[in-house]
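for the writeup, i need someone to sanity check this before i put it in the appendix. the sequnce is what the collaborator sent (i think, or maybe the updated version? ugh). structure was predicted straight from it, no edits. if anything looks off just tell me and ill rerun, i have time this weekend
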Amino acid sequence: MNNNLKLALAVVVLAGGGAFLWMTQRPMPMDTAQMGAGNGGPIADVKIPTEMSSLAEIGKRAFDAKCATCHGANAAGTQGKAPPLVHQYYRPGHHADAAFFLAAQNGVRAHHWRFGDMPPIEGVTKGDIKGIVAYVRSLQKENGIN
């Protein structure tokens, strides 16, 4: 086998392997039935913790005031509007706490869902976001998302 043929074969094998890894390791979009136009109902079933830290309690109030309009009560998402934050995509190992700060302050381009871009949230403080993150993380933990 000549060197050019070996090189071409190696390129094809590497490209195919890379494409396979990219397709199998990237997060898949949420069920499309949950993303498009919907009745505005919740997307996820969320179990509520019986007890939360005082920071998470404060965060719940901030979440209800600043986030629930789109992300739904208890971060369950809203069909046709915004994704649930009680979802594996938002687990700490995939979206660190800093991602929530950046999203609230700068907005986010749609990447895991088809709801459109999230705008920055007016009037939310870093203290609000710290509480919101504590609240969302407590919901996630109660629902087996760690």
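Helices lie at 3-25, 54-66, 68-71, 97-106, 126-142. The chain is about 45% helix and 0% strand.
thx in advance!!
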